[in-house]
Amino acid sequence: MLSDHLYHGKTQIVRIFSSNKAAGMNLANKTILITGAAGGLGSAIALLCAGFGADLVLLDKNRRGLGELSDRITGQGLSAPGLYPMNLASAGVDDFNDLLATIGAEFRGLDALIHCALEFGSLQPLEQVQPQDWLQSMQVNVNAPWLLSCTLLPMLKQSQNGRLFFLLDDLDTVTDAYWGSYATAKAALSGLVRQFAASLSNSRVFVRGIIPGPMRTAFRARVYQAENPLEQPDPAIVAGKIVAMLAGNLSGGELIVDFSQ
C-alpha cells in the first residue's frame, strides 16, 4: 500500500478551514474513518475534519506516518485521533471485525468511511506483472474496500447521515497501456460504487465515488517522474471539497464526483 504523502502547505489547510468555517461547517459529534490516512490526500482530509470537530479513526500501515499526523493534529490544540495501524494487503474478516468492535467500544458510532488507501507498483506491460503483485493490488484496491465497507455498514446505517466515499481514478487514463492491476482494480471499484449506491438507495447512507484529479502526491510523482510536482494542486484543495461533502446535503447529487474537471 503506497503512502502517497508529500508536504502540503499549512497555509492551504488554514485557508480552506477558514473558508468552510465561515460557511458554518461543523462535524462535531461525527466519527469518521479514513483509510490511507498517512497519505497526502488522507492526511489533508484528516487535518480538516479534526479542525471541524470530528472524532477520527485513522487507518494506515505506515505507523510512523500515523504518529506524525497525530502530532500535527494535537499540535493545533485538537483532540487526539484514534490510530489504527493495519496493512490492508493482509487484512481479513477477523481484522475488520476487530476494528468494528473497537469503534463500537471507543466511539459513539460511525458516520463516515472514506477509502483513500491505494496500492500501486509501477507502469509495466501486463505480461511482466508478477502474480503476487497483481493479487496484492487487487486485495488493497478492491477486496479490502469491499469487505471493510460491508463490515462497517451496520454501524453506518445507524447514522443520521452516513457517508461511504471511495477514491476513484479517470478510467480513460488508467485503463490505457501499462497501468496493469491498478487500472483493473479501479475499474472494478467503480462498479462496486454503483452497486453499493443501488443497494443503499433506501437507506440513510450516501455513497459517492470521487475522482480527485491530479494532486501533488507521491503516487503521482511515481507515475509521472519527469513532471514538476509543484505544478500540481495541493491535495488540501480536494480535501476541502470532500470535507464539504461530509457536512453538506447530498440528496439528488451525482454518484460519481469528478474534481478533475
Strand order of the largest sheet: 3-2-1-4-5-6-7
Average predicted local confidence, pLDDT: 89
- DSSP E strands, number: 7
CATH superfamily: NAD(P)-binding Rossmann-like Domain
Gyration radius over CA:
17 Å
The count of domains is: 1
And the CATH topology? Answer: Rossmann fold
Helix content: 40-55%
Largest sheet, strands/sense/barrel: 7 strands, parallel
Quickly count the helices. 9
Silhouette: globular
* Low-pLDDT runs: 1-9
Category from helices, strands and their pairing = alpha/beta
List keywords for this structure.
alpha/beta; Rossmann fold; 261 residues; disordered N terminus; seven-stranded parallel sheet
What's the short story on this structure?
This protein is of the alpha/beta class and 261 residues long. The chain has a single domain, classed as NAD(P)-binding Rossmann-like Domain (Rossmann fold).
Description:
- With 261 residues, this protein is an alpha/beta fold.
- It has nine helices and seven strands.
- It has a seven-stranded parallel β-sheet, with helices on both faces.
- β1, α2 (40-51) and β2 form a beta-alpha-beta unit.
- α1 runs parallel beside α9 (235-247) and α2 packs across α9 (235-247).
- Residues 1-9 have low confidence and may be disordered.
